[in-house]
Amino acid sequence: NTPMIDITFFGHNSFLIKSDVSIFIDPFITPNPKAKEININEIIADFILITHGHMDHIADVDKILQHNDAKIIAIVEVAGWLAAQGHTRLHGLNFGGTYHFSNRTSAKFVQAVHSSSMPDGTYGGQPGSYIFKTQGKTIFIAGDTALHSDLKLFGALNSIDLAILPIGGNYTMDVEDAVHAAKFLGCEKVIGCHYNTFPEITIDHQSAIELFNSHKLDLMLLTIGEKISI
């Protein structure tokens, strides 16, 4: 019996992945009106994993840390900026680096195609994705990225069980490009994110799901607060 991995969607690119440890990804809840039903004070996390420095991926780091003694994992520049804000429990990675949360759970930082800066405009290093391994499963956490050919490399070198991909377009890949990304990754199961938060990234849910289905792919569009187990 492989232990369950619970994934809860908190809107935009915010997820909580709970296996042997609890890891919160890209906290952005209180500034998101679509997530107003979520009580951020109830979120329990051992770690915060950040894909890049944009405000809509780190806005609630402080709020999560008000009631959690969580360690932050991010690219070195984001970690350095957070250290300058007074944070002390940090680990900085760069591309190709792997962080081990436990002996069963790790995340490798790999390249993405996007931009990155901190909320105050300072340099935020480069955006990235994570190849996340836990309990014998591999989850690709894209963060914000356009379609790019290195996704084929990640698919060739890993057996990916689930991909969390942005699908809203405008700032990231859109639904059509996410279909290609899933194929590059060799992954049939996709959770969509980074859509409907802002007017510029509104999508048609039904046509998105149908497009994925037509390519024999499964697109899950979770409601905010919804949890799935794999």
Write a concise keyword list for the protein shown above:
230 residues, alpha/beta, 7-stranded mixed beta sheet, 14 strands, 20% helix
Characterise the protein shown here.
The chain has 230 residues and is an alpha/beta fold. The strands form two sheets. It has a seven-stranded mixed sheet with strand order 6-5-4-3-2-1-14, with helices on one face. It has a seven-stranded mixed sheet with strand order 7-8-9-10-11-12-13. Helix 4 packs parallel to helix 5. The relative contact order is 0.15.
Beta-strand content bin: 25-35%
Largest sheet: 7 strands, mixed
Low-confidence stretches: none
What integer value in Å does the Rg equal? 16 Å
Order of helices and strands: EEEEHHEHEEEEEHEHEHEE
Summed over residues and divided by their number, the pLDDT gives a mean of 97
Which outline best applies? globular
What's the tally of helices? 6
Structural class: alpha/beta
Distance between the termini: 12 Å
Total number of beta strands: 14
Percent helix among the residues? Answer: 10-25%
> Spatial order of the strands in the main sheet?
6-5-4-3-2-1-14
Question: What does this entry show, briefly?
Answer:
This protein has helices spanning 55-58, 61-65, 76-84, 150-157, 175-185, 205-214; strands at residues 6-9, 15-18, 22-25, 47-49, 71-75, 90-93, 98-100, 105-111, 128-134, 137-141, 162-166, 189-193, 218-220, 227-229.
